[in-house]
Each structure stands twice: as C-alpha cells, then as structure tokens.
Amino acid sequence: MLVPTLAATAALFTTSAHAWGAAGHEIVATIAEIHLHPPVLAFLRSDSSLIPDYAKGHLAPIATWPDRIRMVPEYRGWSGQLHYGSWDGDHPPQVCSWPGTGDGTDDEGGKGRWHSDNDVIHAVANYTSRLETNPHDWESLRFLVHFLGDIHQPLHLTSRERGGNGDPVLWEGRRTNLHSLWDGLLIARALREHSNYTSPLPSQQIESALMGRIYDPYIRLLLWEGVRTWWRTSLPGWFTCSPSSSALSPSPTPPHPAQLVLGAGPAKATVCPVTWATETHKTTCEMGFPDGYDEHGAPVEAGGKSEFYRRIRDSLTVERLLTQAGLRLAATLNTVLGPVAAAAADEAGLDGRMHEGVLNLSWLEEAEREAW
Known about the structure:
mainly alpha
C-alpha cells in the first residue's frame, strides 16, 4: 500500500485562502464524477481541453486550477474576487445580512446590498451559462467545478474579515484563522476520525472514480452512509430553488439576476446559486463561528475538544456541504452537457441514453437491488 508522504498530505490541506483547500475541491469533483450520466462523462473525456491528459479521465485534477492561476498575469486581480461573496453589512455571527433583489425590502435585517456582481454567486451563473452556450469551453468548466465548491464553503459566503482570514482561533493549541479551519483543518480531522471504508465498495461506478488518494475512504463514507441513509429523504430538496419543494423539476425563473434556472432534455435540473448560497450563508451564521466569538479578544480554542468543533462534527455539517456541492455539480453538468453529449454518442453509434433523473444513481439502485 502506498503511504502518502507528510509533504504530500500537508499539500492537500494547504489553504491560503483557497476554499476547501485542494482536498475539499477534489472530493467535490470526485463525487460529481461518480454521478455523471455515462454520455456526459464520455463527452468530457473525449475532449482533452476539457479533461486534459494529465487528469487521466478524472474531474478532480482540474478542480484546483482556479486557485493555481490566480497570480498568472491574465487572471491576476479579477479572478480572485470571484471566489467570495460580495455584499455589504454582513458580520456574522453578530449581524447576518443577505442580499435580496436589490431594493432593500427583503434583505435579512435590511442590511444586505450587492456592491458588485464579481462574486462567486454570479460567477456560478455566468460560467454555467457560458458552458451551456459552448460545451467545449474548458475555462468555464474549470471555473464552474471550482466555484460550485466555493459556494458551499461557509467562510466564502461572508464579507467579514476577508472570509474569516482575519479571524484568529486556536486549533489544538496552534494559532490559525477561521477560514483555514473551514478550508482544510476540519476535513483533515474528519479523515482521521473516519478511518473505516479503506476497502473497496462493491460498486464499480464509485470505485472507478477514486484515484487512490488519502480521502478515498471519506468519499466512500459520504456516499455509502450519507447518500444512502443520512440525507436520503433530503436529496430531492437539494436540487430545487424552493427549499420547501420536494420535486426534482425546474422552478419558475426567480427575480434575482444571478439565479439561473436551466432544464432541458432528459436530465432536468435547476441550477440556482442564490438558493444554494443562501443555505450556506445560514450555516455560516449558525455554525461558522464559536459562540460569543470576539475577533478582538484572545483567540479561542476551536479544535477537537471544543464545543464549537463537536457541534460541527455531530451535525455532519462538513460532510453535508461537501456532498451537496458534489451532487449539485453533477446535476449541473448533466443538465448543461446532457443534450450535446447524447447527440455526440448517437453520432458515434454509442448509447446516448441518460439515466432517469438529474443524477446517475445507478450505484444506489444496484446496492438496493443486490442488498449490499
């Protein structure tokens, strides 16, 4: 068995203001890959600009590209701000403001106001639309894979202290900040605590997407226990713009310009970054900071023995957010690329039929059929 070196393991969780860190983004992309309809995955693999040769047919290796190119001249400056929210007056946990339609009538506390459309919410809508227009737009694909992870990271959905980078805490006695804690430290701790699922699952659909990484057992856990049991009844609501709706069908076009509703062909889904970001921001306010947090006081302990950490662990908050991001990314790609992927398969004389629904859940159906 290959044992990751200390340097390689540390690199996966190096955050430096990058949402979820490398491991988190790769986990999201791997979950998405597992749930792509076969023609969509085949379409992505058929174009080396979409999934380059070094990725060996996987989505995970391209998931961190937007972080790696931030300082490249043609991306410097403008691309960095797309990783975060962009509105005024938000300072959780004391003040939680959220933008509405822009007229100030439905903002949380009347304080939220968009001050730029160069943010992660608008970026998800923009790059989804661009990829729908040009399915071979490799840049839009890479940004979309990354930003759908960002939109589920609580400290990327607040405008205070540069997303928590200026909010000091202690992690098991060592000084860090809340952004780094959410980016990688919580995931690293989860990998240590969830040490089961080291053996392959009976599902080839799942195992073929894994790349022999340190987080493979964690992905198995998120699917085998999370999707099958923990969130089974909640899944339909993860793919609608209306939190109260249980139907897997597109909602009416909402008024907000960043809310993008798509749905065509056999894979019908709703791509709604405002709704998803609203859910994450609620988590930011409720779970993102230790109780009574004061950035001007002495840093408080937020590690494994703290009530703050236990609340996150026991509620499976990180696990839910990563899984939501991965499944929503899959649903988005299945919706946007489904029609062109089916046409390409038919033209090549291959089976272009899609599985029913917004996700390829064949592994779940097989597990129930075979009583695994």
